[in-house]
Specification:
It is a single chain. With about 170 residues, the protein is mostly beta strands. It has no helices and 15 strands. About 0% of the residues lie in helices and about 45% in strands.
Length: about 170
């Protein structure tokens, strides 16, 4: 008697394509399709099953639709933090955990016009839109002066150097 024996390679690690590290952020209402990548002990994908993964999460901040092709469509349902677990379906028991932070996306940044006297400084405090997108410090933004010979800016602190007008931008 003869039988055929299939020798499979088991998964050693799992990662999500395009996600650096194990933490990522999504905006409330955002949908993102991610592809799971299973690798063997040598880091190869050639003989490892990459067409199906199990998707689990520990609260309602996100939901995941399993597309049964190695991808999952993540939907950000409510603001908060959630652990997303991606599991291999090859019997290896290997999983990867990702911390997902769901936030309210910032749609704008507002700065009030102000005056600084020559040789003095003034602290700018940006306001984000919508206002419920969170609390931010001036150091959380990138700052730029349209003319650093008139005024410089660092972490929102404007230094008046010469008489004139300048645009300060926070992004």
């Amino acid at each position: 008697a003869t039988c055929r024996v299939q020798v499979n390679v088991t998964t050693d690690t799992i990662e999500l394509e395009g996600i650096e590290g194990n933490t990522f952020t999504m905006a409330l209402g955002e949908k993102r399709t991610v592809r799971g990548i299973a690798r063997d002990v040598n880091g190869d994908t050639e003989h490892v099953k990459n067409d199906g993964f199990g998707w689990a999460w520990n609260n309602g901040c996100i939901s995941v639709k399993n597309n049964n092709d190695g991808t999952g469509e993540i939907t950000a349902n409510r603001v908060g933090n959630v652990t997303l677990t991606v599991g291999a379906k090859d019997g290896s028991g290997v999983t990867a955990k990702y911390n997902v932070r769901v936030i309210i996306a910032i749609t704008g940044i507002e700065l009030a016009d102000t005056t600084v006297f020559l040789g003095d400084t003034v602290q700018l405090r940006p306001t984000v839109v919508p206002s419920n997108a969170g609390t931010f410090l001036p150091s959380d933004f990138e700052w730029e002066s349209s003319d650093p010979t008139i005024a410089t800016v660092e972490d929102g602190l404007v230094h008046g150097l010469e008489y004139g007008s300048v645009d300060i931008t926070a992004t």
